[in-house]
Design brief:
single chain; about 400 residues; 16 helices; globular
């Protein structure tokens, strides 16, 4: 709720600095220092709002698109080069801000990713980073609002890479998808490094890591895929705990719904205690959505309701799994997902088959999804981890 209110206030303040002519064009001159300072200040307000808002910022002036008109003009004048966007007194911060906003507006997702990566490269140069940091501090001193720090600005670029890159990857060929997924996963990890202990950081790292693992499974193999999914599960559980500690219903809904999906993935092992805690968090999703619905924008609420629907579809399978009913869990998982991994006929044993490694019943399935062998070493792991049997996981007593 606080993030929504603050983002609206920031966007309103940005709009006030960007007047338009009667025909809707930027009214501020493009080449004077005073006008460029006002423009850069508005862009920093908007970048801050975009970063702190967990979803697309909704405010009264969005349809007028003052920011878009000014950003488009500035990019055109700069010829797509961040270091040519503004007068030297406002560089490099001015150029970085306009590239960030422009990258988030254009429909060309690969171009958006490229713009962000170019900007991030600038921030890895110590001299440019230090200068940008000083400029941010100067603008903060003259503003009544809390603005981005240098680490938050870098995190904003990386987070935009994860958003645009993940969507762009679904539109690319397999080779391009795999390469892009690795870059996106690196940005996800960087968001977590720059924003440690936050649900946003944990979710960025977890979702991009699982996406990268899936995109590269044909090259890296199942062993690397399983390891990546396990790391993703750990980060998602941290996101849930962090959201609950911060008493954030929004982030609890998002982190719990995604964590529940990954927990149902055959490649993932999760302790009984963690799964019980996750189910408890997921069971609170409907109440959280009901709490947020009257106060958040319709777009945000629609996304939350979609998350709640996914949780409602998955919870029965996970509850059955916790109750120790492997067959019921399998049947409910089929209903939740709509389909399951198919297994070739030659790999189908009888319904009474058991794992030759630990004796766990494997209903209609022969090989372990982790080692692809009948004689897997589950029994040696101990504890209460959930062993994986291709499409179904069983709980040890």
């Amino acid at each position: 709720m606080h993030a929504f209110v603050t983002s609206v206030q920031l966007m309103r303040a940005a709009d006030e600095l960007l007047p338009l002519t009667a025909d809707g064009q930027p009214a501020l001159p493009a080449d004077t220092l005073v006008a460029q300072q006002a423009e850069a200040q508005a862009f920093l307000l908007a970048a801050t709002a975009t970063f702190i808002a967990p979803d697309v910022v909704e405010w009264e002036g969005r349809q007028v698109n003052r920011l878009g008109r000014y950003a488009q003009r500035r990019v055109s004048l700069a010829g797509g080069r961040p270091n040519a966007a503004y007068l030297p007194a406002l560089q490099p911060l001015g150029g970085l801000l306009v590239m960030y906003l422009y990258a988030g507006m254009i429909p060309n997702l690969p171009e958006s990713v490229q713009l962000c990566q170019t900007s991030v490269a600038c921030l890895t140069q110590q001299a440019l980073r230090s200068m940008t940091s000083r400029q941010l501090q100067q603008m903060q001193r003259s503003s009544e609002h809390t603005l981005l720090t240098i680490d938050q600005l870098e995190a904003a670029f990386h987070y935009l890479i994860t958003r645009c890159g993940s969507e762009a990857g679904s539109q690319a060929g397999s080779a391009a998808t795999a390469a892009l997924a690795k870059s996106v996963a690196a940005s996800g990890e960087r968001v977590l490094a720059l924003q440690p202990g936050t649900p946003k950081g944990f979710l960025s790292a977890a979702t991009t890591a699982s996406g990268c693992a899936a995109a590269n499974i044909s090259r890296a193999g199942f062993s690397e895929f399983n390891a990546a999914m396990q790391r993703s599960m750990s980060q998602l559980l941290s996101a849930v705990r962090c959201a609950q500690a911060q008493r954030s219903p929004y982030w609890t809904v998002n982190s719990a719904s995604i964590a529940l999906q990954v927990a149902m993935t055959p490649a993932v092992a999760i302790s009984r205690a963690d799964l019980e805690a996750l189910v408890a968090a997921a069971e609170g999703v409907p109440a959280a959505v009901k709490q947020l619905s009257p106060v958040l924008p319709q777009l945000w609420v629609a996304n939350l309701k979609q998350r709640a629907s996914l949780v409602a579809a998955m919870l029965p399978a996970v509850r059955a799994q916790l109750q120790g009913s492997l067959l019921e869990a399998s049947e409910r998982a089929v209903q939740a997902w709509g389909d399951v991994e198919t297994v070739s006929q030659q790999d189908q044993p009888s319904a009474s088959c058991t794992c030759s490694g630990c004796g766990t019943r494997a209903i209609g399935l022969r090989r372990c999804a982790r080692c692809k062998q009948a004689a897997c070493e589950w029994g040696a792991r101990g504890g209460d981890a959930l062993p994986v049997i291709v499409g179904v996981r069983s709980l040890q007593a």
